[in-house]
DNA sequence: TTCGATGATTTCTA
DNA sequence: TAGAAATCATCGAA
């Protein structure tokens, strides 16, 4: 029987983890032996194994001394090789089951979401894209910009916490990995630990830490989702438009009552003037049309007010234009551009002014009529608490813009439409009473 | 706290 | 796709 076989026998004799060691092993020749003293070697191996098995029962100093003795033992390299082979074989079967984990789809989803929200990946304005999308959905302007910046600030906060925690985890992971590797390297001198095994151990540690990271990512995603939903919910938190904005919108509405459908350009202009968005202008006109139609009586007073207001403005503009016209070319009052009305609110107003006396305005006649209207209106405004009182039951405006079907008449047929901005004419006759 | 006003959203239609 | 109509949700005055 050769050395190898004898070692096998001995190992088998102590039931070393029940492993049967097969295959050729290149065992180094035992120190100081020529391979003939079989009983002596058997005794040696028996001693070594006995020492190994009883090492836990010994005191630390004693064990250290024994350990040193074992390390120096002539049979140590042979036993070490056997253990290495056993470990290699058992390790392979374990590795086979554990290696090459497919990427976790949940982790991928989390990563993608964090990237999309601007939490993970390079700094790109703290998820400004997401915030902008949400802001666009909300259609807000000034107020939303506040909410937008608030959203960004909170997202930046989440991003900072996420990165700090991630860094902490990575640092802890690296420290722990280094520590374990050092320990394993240290231990590899006394027990068989292959570099592959160390690698595997590192992999296990990394997997453990990435599961912790996943929890962090999950929590971050939840935080972002909550923030996002709160931000989007804020869309419903409306704020009333400023008084000025409402006035501008109302002026347009009542001066275009025959066809209160502003064009895209007009909407943009109004949005600009009112510091709101085009969609808010659209909403406002949508609401206004519906509510006006539903309760015309209720809006009568408002209509009167705005009609008068528009009339005053128009009259001012007209008077100024006439004055200019007269100053520039007294002999030809209606020559050039100054002869025609350049009203701030064109459309109905222009039409109503044209039809004020049945004919279109010309030259000095315009000046006289308009000035008279202005004076009358000024008088009414100064003498009365409000148009309603002054006008009594004689409404200066009646909602002729609506047709029998409840819809607005087509703006392309203004001749059949009596605009509310006929106000000046009506006012003149009404107040003259 | 109530209630009307009002901005926003949703659903439907032409 | 714009607009009508219904509805929701909030604001703000009483």
From TrEMBL:
PROSITE patterns referenced in this protein's UniProt entry, alphabetically: HOMEOBOX_1, HOMEOBOX_2, PBC
Keywords: DNA-binding, Homeobox, Nucleus, Transcription, Transcription regulation
Chain intervals for the UniProt region annotation (Disordered): 323-344, 405-433
Comp. bias (Low complexity): 323-340
Protein name per its UniProtKB record: Uncharacterized protein
SUPFAM superfamilies to which the protein is assigned, alphabetical: Homeodomain-like
SMART domains: HOX
GO MF annotations, alphabetized: DNA binding; DNA-binding transcription factor activity, RNA polymerase II-specific
Polar residues compositional bias, start-end: 410-419
Lineage, broadest ranks: Eukaryota, Metazoa, Chordata, Craniata, Vertebrata
Organism superkingdom: Eukaryota
Subcellular location per the Swiss-Prot or TrEMBL entry: Nucleus
Domain PBC residues, every copy: 40-233
InterPro entries: HD, Homeobox_CS, Homeodomain-like_sf, KN_HD, PBX_PBC_dom, TALE_homeobox
Family matches, as Pfam families: Homeobox_KN, PBC
Location of the Homeobox domain: 232-295
GO CC terms of this entry: nucleus
DNA-binding region, residues: 234-296
Family: Belongs to the TALE/PBX homeobox family.
Main location (coarse class): nucleus
